[in-house]
Amino acid sequence: MLKPAYLLLPLLAATAVPSVHADTQAAAQGTDARITQLLVTLNQVHQIGAVALSPNGAHLMWTEAAMGKTVIELADADGSHAHALKMSTRLSECAKSDFAWSPDSRGLAFIADCGHDITDTKAIHNDVYLADIADAGMPHRLAELTGNASALAWTKDGKSLGFLYVPGATRHASATAAGNAQVGVIGEGNEDVQRVASLDVSTGVVNILTPATLYAYEFDWSPDGASIAYTAAPPPGDNNWWVAKLYTQGVRHDMEPNVAIDPSIAQGSLHGLQVALPRWSPDGSRIAFIGGLMSGQGSNGGDLYSVPASGGIASNLTPGITVTPEWFVWKGSDALIVSQNAKGKVQLVTYDIHSSSATAQTPYFTLPAMIGDGNAVLGVSLSTDRTRVAFAQSSYESAPEVHAGRLIHTPPPAVTAINKWVKPVWGNATSVEWKSEGRNVQGWLLYPADYDPHKTYPMIVNVHGGPAWGVLSRWPTMNEMYAVSDYFQFMPNPRGSFGQGETFVQANRSNFGYGDLRDILAGIDAVEKMAPVDDHRLGLSGWSYGGFMSMFAPTQTHRFRAAVAGAGLSDWQSYYGENRIDQWMIPYFGASLYDNPAAYAKSSAINYVKQVRTPTLIVVGDRDEECPAPQSFEYWHALRTLGVPAQLVVYPDEGHDFVDPRHMRDILQRSLDWFAKYLPVSKQ
What we know:
There is one protein chain. This protein has about 675 residues and is α+β, with helices and mostly antiparallel strands. About 15% of the residues lie in helices and about 35% in strands.
């Protein structure tokens, strides 16, 4: 489904927290001291976005956001001599993203968005800028673009910048963004088409490379810059990522795309799955990629594959592994450096390639943390010779810092102390492992802020989105509000999650709400054996797939005494016809609704809703393409009809990812109030 949702409030929180301070009155009933405490802590944190080493390994850049403004910091590779990149007053106010060092390590290109409308109704204007690091002058503009641009990447000769481009777009290229109004003749209008484009750095001329009949999602330059590899599908782009093929194409005028891999007809383990992150080998002979059952674009995970650049049969390099590779780069022509999820922890490891298989070496390091470079979850930045590494790192215990150093078998140290004074206002974090029906399962448990082992506490279970995603230890956003408010907070990674290999991910196929719920209930049992949790004060919450589980689980068990369902769905059958991303469902359900309605009925909460006794708060955006608001209306209507306490709140101009800080704070307040009412911290 469904882009991964970070627990209760999804991806929205990290991007919008710097602006939350401007809202001084919660839209719900008054301002809560718990929220004030949490927001004060969150607003002390300087968020670190992109982190990038220059190709020669000598320079380091990162972005630092605080109080609604983003600064580009430049430093030596060890973090010394850090200083902000000088820029005009106007540019300093713009959002900046998609940073790319030039091959000679002298220039830093980036995209500036100087006035995007959060309602997604006005045209986007993106500018491409280039800063000369050796020059004390300000960045200069290379091109003005009317539309959405992203994913800047240099050719090896430094003459061109490639990027993804949606000319004339009013919204960001993502199914999680607020959808356009569905009025007039539906399905026959002009679709936004994202294409690969190139920008001549010397002249500013922009050329569109890929055809208008294909919506491109990711791309990579060949080593000689004469070709591109990209994943693409016919439009509409929001819907068809799940059936994308891997293409190669020359960049000369009117070159035709060549299909390198079509998963729909591929033989073996890749058949019917998704492909992501295509990367040319340094010698140009092969293209590696990640293939697997992936429930949302950007939530990459699966096995590592390789295919000849001319196309052919793809080789699964890593069959049977019990970890989830999520990001990689080539290390020479016969090895990959891979960042992977290993039972809720991050590993960086080299895989040596031998013909059609790959062998993992001893990991460089394993971290109970989240790492990333601002462009990909678990992504890192490496020097061209692969001897130096840099990334942003955070955990439940430590606020984000930039880490950089030699790529050796110890984690690189922090080279910044941006957030050293910020301390958690929630309790300790523990990785929990348990058995469920013969499977090893893992999750994270946050203790209450002022934990007293002599007391018993209520616990709220957060089910993550996806379902193909996984909870890692990361500096909390609004999602960890419950641990601040004297609740235990349990975040399981049941079957269907990343972290234990592709077999574990696929164990959730055609079984939504059953096997994964049994894993979660077994995890609750495990937690109750190690911590003083009151089983009669259990709550449930989630967003996206977690929102579905917050609707479905109460039809199967009365163990949860209150629930908050965010952007969820209640009826897979009606959902199939309402959402705008129905292609994701066929790999999971095995067939379309029209070919096998029973498979969809089996996991529909609405079919068992008369079993529900759980008071439920339901929240959703009115322009959500992924989990449309009618799904929330259906569930709310049923609960109200059956006399179960329920409240439905629909937020205007919001998609699957919320962007308005006032709405986020309102959800925060309402959720705390809801659980305080039905799951009091102190027994009455």
